[in-house]
Amino acid sequence: MFDQDTITILYVEDNPDNRLLIRRILMAEDFNVVEAENALQALEIIQKDFRPDLILVDINMPDMDGYTLTTKLKQIPHLKGVPIVALTANVMRGDKERTLDAGCDGYIQKPIDVDSLPRQINTYLGR
Hints:
Elements: E1 8-12, H1 16-28, E2 32-36, H2 39-47, E3 54-57, H3 66-74, E4 84-88, H4 95-101, E5 106-109, H5 117-124
Parallel strand pairs: 1-2, 1-3, 3-4, 4-5
């Protein structure tokens, strides 16, 4: 399906325009991108023993919020060590802390900076 040597990112986002933008940015940087339209679809993908190198999670989704999804993902043994990064428009005081308290390893604000997103992703990947 994907080149084994290429970094694979699972992106969980309900907004199709946001998915398209992030996919284009990441694919231009030679990342593989697997998309989930909601938290339940992300859990389905992960339950098939899929292990991405990084997971990007939107916080505001209709079926299950990103906080709850992150908590569930952190409990899945084969995801141990996979960074989970919130990609969110929640930028009020305390939102970053709540995101990190839910188990996210990082936090990227929307609207994203197209030029700095790849660098931010590489930082969370330890590159």
